[in-house]
Amino acid sequence: MKIVLCVLAAALVCATAQGRSIRASDDPVRDEPSLTEEERRHWAFRPLAFPVEPVRADRLREAVAELDALVARSLAKAGLARSPAADATTLIRRLHFDLTGLPPLPDEVEAFRQDFARQPEAAYEARVDRLLASPAYGEHWAQNWLDLARFAETDGFEHDKERPRAWQFRDWVIRALNEDRPFDDFVRQQIAGDLLVQGEAVATGFLFAGPDMPDLNNQEERRHVVLNDITGTFGTAFLGLTVGCAQCHDHAYDPLSQADFYRLRAFFDNTVLPSRDKPLGPQVRIFTEGVPASTVFVRGEFRRPGPGVSPGFPRIAGGTDLASPDRAALAHWLTRPGNALFLRTAANRLWQQHFSLPLAPVPADLGHQSPPPAQPEILDWLAAELPRQGWSLKRLHKLLVLSQTWRQATPAPGLEAEAVARFAAHPRRRLTGEMLRDSLLHLTGRLNSKAGGPGVRLPLPAEIRGTLLKNHAGAEADEVEQRRRSIYVFARRNARQPIFDLFDRPDALLSCARRETSTTAPQALLLLNAGFAQESAAALADLALAAGEGHPRASATHALRRCLAREPLPEEVEEAVAFLSADPAASLREAFADYCLALINTNEFVHVD
Asked: What is the pTM of this model?
């Protein structure tokens, strides 16, 4: 009953907060508080400060210049200046990781350096275009969206039953991103793909991606919990508001009433879960008909259905009359170009994914309780730019990475916090668990580029297998299949791969708008001792020794280039040669495998400048 406990805990937090007066009425519709002018004046609810103009195909250069000018004005007000531009080798490694989640190989680095020396802007833009056109782009960026969608391939809870077709939604997200589906349609399909003209029902896997308890004895309770989860996730993912806090009482801080919550939920009340043996999409009704389709539940209790409600948009987000009371109407309302809250939420998250820090500090909550953005002008500009660029995410990616703001060097030690927070330097980022695993496969030539299909089950350590049901611990026998990208690894809610778990992958019980970034001793222990890390070090040693024809100096140079995507310093090569000859009892291959293991444990390998 973890999801029920999460709901109750969230309600307790809201109920004990000091903010707006909390109403937990027996008739939340009749007692619904009116919106005040002060509530409407909150920064997130105001119209954008920039007009959403018609799309112009030639706007990219102009937009890059506008962004850099906005950032420069912000820096000048703070008495700061932009950092120098990063060098070519830093830029190519940063760019590859940012757009594809994979590092560049030595030949790519050298070719880029030569092209950049001759024609820097042309070389840089050509590389951006090439990476955005790569299938690896969608495979990397899809993980950000799957975090938001609380995606997994099992139900969670005690039985953690598998969802044989959940992978179809994951593949749809990857395909849509690679095809550069306009973001407004990308979102509409996930809300109402089964109802739209030329819609794709598989996209509605977003609605059903959360945890579930299909064996719950009381199916009315299950219905209540699932629909509340869908409604709360809709609010977090698309409106940047903690809508779920209003399921038991009026929101403690934000102008969201309990009636607002259930009017929003009413759009989903006729939504039914897909059968496990059929393609994704709301097709088969599995809920009982114990309560009216659309009702407020008094104090959030599923046994206390209250007054009926009709579907309606949250009033503070610009509620308007409905042309039709279905999810298609909700999808079109949400993605209209004038929906400032939706656009700010999307723009804030996009900036966060490129710069590590969001413009508004709490991307899942733009409400009254969260600090306002330090640079609201930049957030509003980017929010308006999304429809101005034809809702193209790839154009927005290109705009951001072409900017001088993104191309800055990382800050000097000791100045990082202030410089990064004010965008006077580029942040240094730690790789995610998925990026670490994929990098080690890619750099050692073992990455299987096969795309799509059911999730691949990887072996789990014995201490984790012992906690699972007997039929949950199996693994793919084919080692080549095991070497596919991490996005295709079977996502079990009750057991994550250690490299994902230790490097802060969310548990998929709730929507995750921003991953934590921790630094712990077990991370280092895993990269030193795990079988996968040692196998990768041995494979890297074999590649380097072959490339250097067995000569320690040449082999060490190749390993350093391959791991760090730059030319090694002379002293680094000398240190490597000294290390390789330190133990006369060890073979060169053994010593080189140990050296490669040390390389993949360096800060420079695990972080991106």
From this structure: 0.93
Give the residue from 91, 63, 44, 71 showing the smallest Cα distance to 422: 71
* Sequence-ordered list of residues with C-beta below 8 angstroms from that of 139, at least 6 positions apart, any chain: 100, 101, 174, 451, 485, 487
Structure-block tokens of residue 212: 């579930």
Q: Which of 17, 549, 491 is nearest to 252 (CA)?
A: 17
- Alpha carbon dihedral 68, 73, 78, 80, in 10-degree steps, equals 50
The pair of three-digit structure tokens given for residue 449, joined into one six-digit string? 């580029």
Residue-wise pLDDT for 478-527, tens only, equals: 999 999 999 999 999 998 899 999 999 999 999 999 999 999 999 999 99
Q: How many CB atoms neighbour CB 589 within 10 A?
A: 13
For residues 609 and 425, what is the distance between their CA atoms, to the nearest angstrom?
10
The amino acid present at 27, given as its one-letter code, is D
3-state secondary structure 233-281: HHHHHHHCCCHHHHCCCCCCCCCCCHHHHHHHHHCCCCCCCCCCCCCCC
Contact (Cβ atoms closer than 8 angstroms) between residue 43 and residue 376:
yes
Tell me the one-letter amino acid at 59.
R
* Rounded CA separation 426/368 (Å): 29
pLDDT, tens digit, for every residue of 539-586?
Answer: 999 999 999 998 999 999 999 999 999 999 999 999 999 999 888 888
Q: How far is the C-alpha of 374 from the C-alpha of 379, rounded, in Å?
A: 9
Residue 425 to residue 416: CA distance in whole angstroms: 8
Location of structure tokens 């833009």: 125
